[in-house]
Amino acid sequence: MSKLESPRHDEFAAEVLRLAAGNVAQGGGPFACLVVKDGRVVAKGVNQVTPHKDPTAHAEVQAIRAACRALDDFELRDCEIYTSCEPCPMCLGAIYWSRVKAVYYCATRAQAAAAGFDDSLIYDEAAKPLGARLIPFHRVGEATSNAPFEAWTKLADRTLY
């Protein structure tokens, strides 16, 4: 049986979809996420953008933060993510930074867009040169901008990530 034929995928998918639907009933967005390690759910997250008034309170970010606390680590190399929808660009970044070994998603970003959660602007903006973006990006502090990196590279006992 291949990994994608595992009966656990259906179980985790059903759980994450129940969480997402339940979150809507509680005033949150229609998104949820599980972090799974060794076949066990170590953390859950639901979209709390509007209740918390925090644009970064997406389900994946919430679950990654909770998993890192639960596992006392900033990396989730031995974990898998199950999410109710294909991750947005911000969550995709958090997923890569957490270094999970796999992501399993239920709905597509096209389905999310049809429900009013369209991330295409962010994907398009990320591909543009800084000067062509809708939000202006301006560089400041050039003369000393490398100082924090110099301090970091000189630190003998730094933790690489």
Describe this structure in words.
- This protein has 161 residues and is of the alpha+beta class.
- The protein has helices at 7-25, 49-52, 59-71, 89-98, 109-114, 120-127, 147-154; strands at 32-37, 40-46, 79-85, 102-107.
- The protein has a 4-stranded mixed β-sheet.
- Strand 1 (32-37) and strand 2 form a beta hairpin.
- Helix 3 packs parallel to helix 4.
- The longest helix is centred in the first third of the chain and has 19 residues, at 7-25.
- It is globular and about 55 Å long.
Secondary-structure-derived class: alpha+beta
Query: Largest beta sheet, briefly?
Result: 4 strands, mixed
CA gyration radius, whole angstroms: 18 Å
N- to C-terminal separation? Answer: 34 Å
Shape: globular
Mean pLDDT across all amino acids: 94
The proportion of strand residues reads: 15-25%
Say what oligomer this is: single chain
Spatial sequence of strands, sheet with the most strands: 2-1-3-4
Strand/helix succession? HEEHHEHEHHH
Which spans have pLDDT < 50 for at least 5 consecutive residues?
none
DSSP strand count = 4
Number of helices: 7
Helix content: 40-55%
Fold blueprint:
Layout: H1 7-25, E1 32-37, E2 40-46, H2 49-52, H3 59-71, E3 79-85, H4 89-98, E4 102-107, H5 109-114, H6 120-127, H7 147-154
Parallel strand pairs: 3-4
Antiparallel strand pairs: 1-2, 1-3
Question: Could you write a compact summary of the structure shown?
Answer:
The protein is of the alpha+beta class and 161 residues long. The protein has helices spanning 7-25, 49-52, 59-71, 89-98, 109-114, 120-127, 147-154, and strands at 32-37, 40-46, 79-85, 102-107. The protein has a 4-stranded mixed sheet with strand order 2-1-3-4.
